[in-house]
Design goal:
heterodimer; A: mainly beta; three-stranded antiparallel beta sheet; 8 strands; 6% helix; B: 385 residues; alpha/beta; Peroxisomal Thiolase, Chain A, domain 1; nine-stranded mixed beta sheet; two-stranded antiparallel ribbon; 13 helices; globular
Chain lengths: 140, 385
């Protein structure tokens, strides 16, 4: 029987956003830092919301953060994600001052709480697409 | 600054039947509702010289000229605020009739949201341009539908303020009870709090019964200048105050500084100030109810209670018919039909005319209606008979 291939949802990057996706494919989560006033911004955009400078650098994030909010999805809104259900999606406060939203991998879906420490990683889905993911930080 | 307070009125309303399978095109549905609204206003189609179609719908101003044979359309616009579009359109229509650009502006909404070509609403919102950030950065992760995206706001509210799923259930049950009084509501069976709690989880904390319907049908309203409205077929329903508000980080909830605030929080003080009324003077409120949590959050952002107190506020019958602030007397998006909130404007107009049948709020003189859309746009109108 021929396997039915479910096409993934893919981003359609612009000149403003392509470096973010290229970074993920290299295993890096990159965000923009204003070259003039120094604040970080995310999602990618051409103008600094604080000083309106268009000069910026791409910076790799420290790679950790804390839970700001979350949801656990039980319903498949797209067939490509059905096999992963239930999936927790975490809104993470990064030390850089922006947020990142990513699916939880590994343990911890049943005891999520605001402020919980998490680590950010990258998951390569195929040759053309990699996404950020979240893991609960191990207690030291 | 001059104000548009009391400069415009809703003078005609129309609705088709609401269903899950209309069997007719959305354009035809909108023409049916529009002709009903025009007749209700005591006008004929050639009197319509303004139209504001739904910004992301499939019917444009030209379709109304063609189908209704409008001789001289002088004003058209669109207001892309998702579910807040209807009230942003009402605001634009009042500006137009007050400035004399048009005399009678038609605001139609119609869709085959349940049966339509192109898939159900939940799976096609991502194509809207105002969803671009979500479309690029969250959908490839599997965060696709409003239920998933909005759940982060609801969870944050629950964790910060102790809001419970039972309190969201109280909203769903109350609105269902109101739908049972409405012959043109899709949901016909009673809902209990237990039934709400047993409905399947869609995206925690939002259960199936926290989510609105996807439905087929159309609604339309006519907006005329306050001066012209005095001599028309129906008692005019004046717009005392109206405003739209856009939240911080309007295109993605993830980056919003305060997840528990909507654009409503910016619009509400302006609408109340323009209207010159107090919260205690509102006799009935039709609150945009795509999800139960969004009702609760708006009640706070509107100022009916403080931030964090919405859960307590909705309990004890306060928001039911006979309560202090009856809401969604028609059954709302949750239990009547999803007409992008134009059914809320139609219902408020009926209430203030005294034409709301079994759901009539006794002596309703002043009412409020809200819209909410996309990732948090809000709009508020305060109206009187």
């Amino acid at each position: 029987m021929q396997e039915h291939v479910i096409e993934r949802l893919r981003p359609n990057p612009t000149q403003d956003t392509k470096p973010y996706w290229d970074g993920l494919l290299k295993g890096q989560v990159l965000i923009q830092q204003c070259a003039d006033c120094g604040i970080f911004r995310h999602y990618p955009r051409p103008v600094c919301p604080q000083c309106h400078s268009m000069a910026f650098d791409w910076r790799e994030i420290e790679g950790h953060g804390t839970v700001h909010s979350w949801t656990v999805s039980y319903h498949a809104f797209h067939l490509a994600f059905k096999k992963d259900l239930p999936t927790a999606y975490i809104t993470v406060d990064l030390p850089e001052g922006v947020r990142l939203c990513a699916p939880l991998r590994g343990d911890g879906i049943d005891d999520l709480a605001i402020g919980k420490q998490v680590n950010i990683g990258v998951e390569k889905l195929d040759a053309d697409l990699a996404i950020p993911i979240v893991r609960i930080a191990q207690q030291s | 600054m001059s104000s548009i307070s009391e400069k415009g009125a809703v003078t005609g309303i129309g609705e088709t039947e609401y269903s899950r399978s209309s069997g007719r095109s959305s354009t035809r549905l909108q023409m049916e509702a529009s002709l009903k609204a025009i007749a209700d206003a005591g006008l004929s189609p050639q009197d319509i010289d303004g139209v504001i179609p739904y910004a992301t719908g499939d019917t444009v101003a030209e379709d109304f000229i063609t189908n209704l044979n409008l001789p001289d359309l002088r004003f058209s616009a669109t207001t892309p605020l998702g579910g807040a579009s209807v009230l942003a359109s009402l605001q634009a229509a009042i500006c137009a009739v007050d400035a004399g650009v048009a005399n009678h502006v038609l605001i139609p909404i119609g869709r085959n949201g349940a049966s339509g070509i192109g898939g159900r609403i939940g799976s096609r919102v991502q194509n809207l341009p105002q969803f671009r950030l979500v479309g690029e950065f969250e959908m490839p992760l599997g965060q696709i539908a409003p239920a998933q995206l909005y759940a982060h706001m609801a969870r944050r509210h629950m964790e910060e303020f102790g809001t419970t799923s039972e309190q969201l259930g109280e909203i769903a049950v109350t609105i269902r009870n109101h739908a049972l009084l409405n012959d043109n509501a899709i949901m016909k069976e009673p809902m209990t709090l237990e039934g709400h709690q047993n409905s399947r989880m869609i995206s925690d904390p939002l259960r199936l019964f926290d989510c609105c319907l996807e439905s087929d049908g159309a609604a339309a309203v006519i907006v005329s200048s306050a001066e012209r409205a005095q001599d028309m077929a129906q008692p005019p329903i004046y717009v005392m105050g109206i405003a739209e508000g856009h939240p911080d980080s309007p295109s993605t909830i993830t980056q919003r500084p305060d997840l528990t605030k909507l654009g409503t929080a910016k619009a509400a003080p302006r609408a109340f100030e323009m209207a010159g009324v107090k919260h205690s003077e509102i006799d009935v409120a039709e609150i945009y109810d795509c999800f139960t949590y969004i009702v609760l959050c708006q009640l706070e952002d509107l100022g009916f209670c403080k931030k964090g107190e919405g859960g307590d506020f909705v309990q004890g019958g306060r928001i039911a018919l006979g309560g202090e602030l009856p809401i969604n007397t028609h059954g709302g998006l949750l239990s009547q039909a999803h007409m992008i909130g134009l059914n809320h404007v139609v219902e408020l107009t009926r209430q203030l005319r005294g034409q709301a049948g079994r759901a009539q709020v006794k002596d309703a003189e002043i009412g409020l209606v809200t819209g909410y859309g996309d990732m948090g746009d809000g709009a508020v109108a305060i109206m009187r008979r």
